[in-house]
Amino acid sequence: MSRAVALVGATASGKSRLAHAVARAAGGGVEVVSVDAMAVYRGMDLATAKPTAAQRREVRYHLIDVLEPDEECTVALFQRLAREAVAGIEARGHGVLYVGGTGLYHRAVLDALEIPGVYPEVRARLEREAARDLAALYGELARLDPVAAARCEPTNARRVVRALEVVRGCGRPFSSFGEGLATYGPVRVTQVGLRVELAEIDRRLEARFATWLDAGLVEEVARLAAVPRGLSRTARQAVGYREILAHLEGGEDLGACVERALVASRRLARRQVAWFARDPRVEWFDDPERARERVEAVLGGTAAVRD
After folding, report:
1. Alpha-carbon distance 5 to 24, whole Å?
2. pLDDT value at position 58?
3. Which residues 6+ apart lie within 8 Å of 22 measured at CB?
């Protein structure tokens, strides 16, 4: 097993702060790989809670500011970029510290999931068909890939379209790309989870968002929206940015948009808790110092995976 640790948990649980402290103390011997779907975008700085410029001078970070905000970020693209980054880190003989809350990206990178390709033209046609007759599409999926059909609800248009996109696009059953996310393989990378009471998470989220507003979040979103090509479909879904865009583009009350962003942040935190809690391989810690000790033990090469 390589010298690698994934630090996981809900947003505002303190993952990034702990990761930075560990990497800084290692004096360059540990590099951080951000596993965040939105930190990849240049210019989206505040509400993605990116490390500051000063922190990035202290610690080497990867997968931050690698895409323009008008570009789409797919799981397959992220997986490829992460593999390239990790290969470079390992070639330098350094430890890898993954940190972030995007659960699907963690699984794609840590478990080396086989990701089906994307076929935009096929998807566009399917989305139009789904708007007219989703039941017919589900029937087609049931005929062509009954295993995939059994794994999704007939009314879940997004999942039906995605499965058929792959079937039509490459002629291979969507279900043939592995057993999916419901199963967990052997431990490939030690995962350390930070557990924080949800009430405390909520308090931190509110305080953090107020700090972002004071630091110019509305102005940051306005600059991004003013760029000729604007924000991609993926980037526009970022919590905080989506709600501020409703204020800037739709004229909605800023206070109401901020409250919606806080509600969305709390929901995101709970989804992250549920996602990582399902993974039996995560080692959970309530005490950040004990979590740090575990991370440093693995990265220092002095501890094996816990029995």
Report:
1. 15
2. 97
3. 30, 97, 292, 295, 296, 299
Domains, in order of start, for the chain: 4-113+187-299 (3.40.50.300), 120-177 (1.10.20.140)
* Rounded Cα–Cα distance for residues 294 and 76 (Å): 30
Quickly tell me which residue has 């951080």 as its tokens: 32
The closest alpha carbon to 104, from 50, 171, 181, 161, belongs to: 181
Report the alpha-carbon distance of residue 208 to residue 273 in Å, rounded. 19
Residue 108 near residue 79, CB atoms below 8 Å: yes
| Residue 94 confidence (pLDDT) | 96
* Residue 22 to residues 15, 18, 41, 49, 294, Cα–Cα distance (Å): 11, 6, 25, 18, 11
- Listed as ranges, residues in the chain with pLDDT below 70 are 1-2, 178-180, 301-307
Q: What is the pLDDT of residues 222-257, one digit of tens each?
A: 999 999 998 998 999 999 999 999 999 999 999 999
Q: What is the pLDDT of residue 117?
A: 83
> How far is residue 52's CA from residue 50's CA, in Å, rounded to a whole number?
6
The CA angle 183-37-66, to the nearest 5 degrees, is: 130
Per-residue pLDDT at 179: 59
Identity of the amino acid at 60: R
- The pTM is what? 0.84
Burial status of residue 303 (CB atoms within 10 A of its CB: 0-12, 13-18, 19 or more) = middle
Secondary structure, 3-state, 225-281:
HHCCCCCCCCHHHCCCHHHHHHHHHHCCCHHHHHHHHHHHHHHHHHHHHHHHHCCCC
Structure tokens at 194: 């930070």
121-144 tens-digit pLDDT = 999 999 999 999 999 999 999 999
Nearest to 225 by CA among 114, 116, 70, 17: 70
**Residue 166: what pLDDT?**
94
